[in-house]
Structures are given as C-alpha cells and as structure tokens.
Amino acid sequence: MSKSNLTSWRGTSFYINPTSRCTNSCIFCVRNFSEGVFGFNLQLDEDPTPEELVDEIEMTWNGQFDDIAIVGFGEPTINIEGTLAAIRTIKKLSPVEVRMNTNGQALLIHHNRDIATELAEAGLDRIQISLNAPDPDTYLRLCQPSFGRMAFDSMLEFTERCKPLMRVELSAVDIPGVDMDACRSIANRLNVEFRERVFKGPEGAIEGILRTLSI
User: Fold this and answer.
1) For residue 15, what is the DSSP state?
2) Which residues of the chain register pLDDT less than 70?
3) Which residue ranges form the domains of the chain, and what is each CATH number?
4) Whole-angstrom Cα distance, residue 47 to residue 61?
5) Pairing of strands 13-16, 67-70
6) For the segment 144-190, what is each residue's pLDDT rounded down to a tens digit?
7) C-alpha distances in Å from residue 139, one per residue of 1, 148, 151, 205
8) In this structure, are residues 14 and 72 in contact, taking their beta carbons and an 8 Å threshold?
C-alpha cells in the first residue's frame, strides 16, 4: 500500500475515509496493527477538503454498491464538513442507506453545534456509536480519550440526541476482560440496538489488553 485512499470498497460495500485523526487512542484499534484494510492505505497526512472527498467519491463510485459507510481510520466528526459533504453526495448518487461509525464524542469536539441534527439533515440514516466499555474507568483504560473521563458520559448523551433522528446502534469490541452483558444492558437502557464487534488485531495483542484492564 502506498497512496492514501479517501474511499475503499470490498464486494458491494463502499467506505468513505474523511480523516485518520481521532480523539481516542484505543489499545485494540486496527490502526495499531495496520495502515489500512482490504489493500487500501487509510493513513492520511491531512484531512481532505469537502471538495476533495466529493471528487473521490464520484470518481470511485460504482452503482452496484448496496452498503455505504462513513468509516475509515479516524473519527469522522473531526472533519465534519467533509463528512456532511460526503453524506449529501452519496444521497444524490444512491437511495441506499448511509451509515456512519463514530466514537460519539461530537458534543465535545463541536460543543457549539448540533451535530446530530446536522448529520440527519445531510441524510445519515444510521449511526453506530462505539461504546466499547460498560463504565468510565474501563473506557479510560481501553480507549484513552483525549477528553478524559467526561468522554464516556458525553458519548451516552450524544446517543440520546441521535435517537429521535436516525437509527442508532451502540457497539463494543468483544475482547477478554470487557463485560459484554453490561455493555448490552446500557444499550437496552437507552433503548437502542447493540452490536458485538469482532476484534481484528493480532492474537498476541490480547495479552497487552488484558494487562491494561488489570491495572
């Protein structure tokens, strides 16, 4: 892999990569083990402009795609203008549902904007918010948010704000030491869907994760 990619695809799934910056530094993140996925390099030197993202989407778009996601190597709401432009562009190209993966920290990243409403108005149909822990302490150890302890509760508040506007899922990576039942209970309490995600890092990384959780 050499050239950085703003879009990637596999089969009939199409992925948009607005940024490789993130407000988390999750110890289980695929970025710790790879520069990309499916043979695409997703590490970006800088965020693309909305125009650059739109151009790349239009250039690589295939009318056969039936699964479209704003998900790359970073937190898409950091490059919110690019993300909104990408959603609007896809909605012009296809009636297919558009989903986005996020760490849910938009209220902290853009404290003076209503990001949930902006995403919905752009056309986002479904949002998957990475819960990844059942409590703030575990979240701090696993995800190492730059916003500190407040990130966990802010994520849950963002989940509540998205609920009236689009389909919402909370997700958690199923790794040893994380109480998946407790994570599922949070989703049930908030009345949103829950999804267990498979850990995609090397098997040897699990030992380090377990050490972190035991601290």
Assistant:
1) E
2) 1-2, 201-215
3) 7-214 (3.20.20.70)
4) 20
5) parallel
6) 999 999 999 999 999 999 999 999 999 999 988 899 999 999 999 99
7) 32, 9, 9, 18
8) no
pTM of the model: 0.91
Question: What is the pairing mode between strands 193-198 and 167-174?
Answer: parallel
Give rounded-to-5 percent helix, strand, coil for the chain.
40, 20, 45
Closest by CA position to 101, among listed 5, 171, 188? 171
The counts of H helices and E strands in the chain are: 8, 9
Token pair 């919110």 in the structure block, residue: 80
The three-state secondary structure class of 24 is: coil
CA-closest candidate to residue 107, choices 171, 45, 151: 151
| Angle formed at CA 70 by CA 69 and CA 75, multiple of 5 degrees | 145
Q: How far is CA 105 from CA 15, 24, 48, 204, in A?
A: 21, 9, 21, 29
Which parts of 11-168 fold into alpha helices (H)? 50-60, 80-93, 106-109, 115-122, 136-143, 150-162
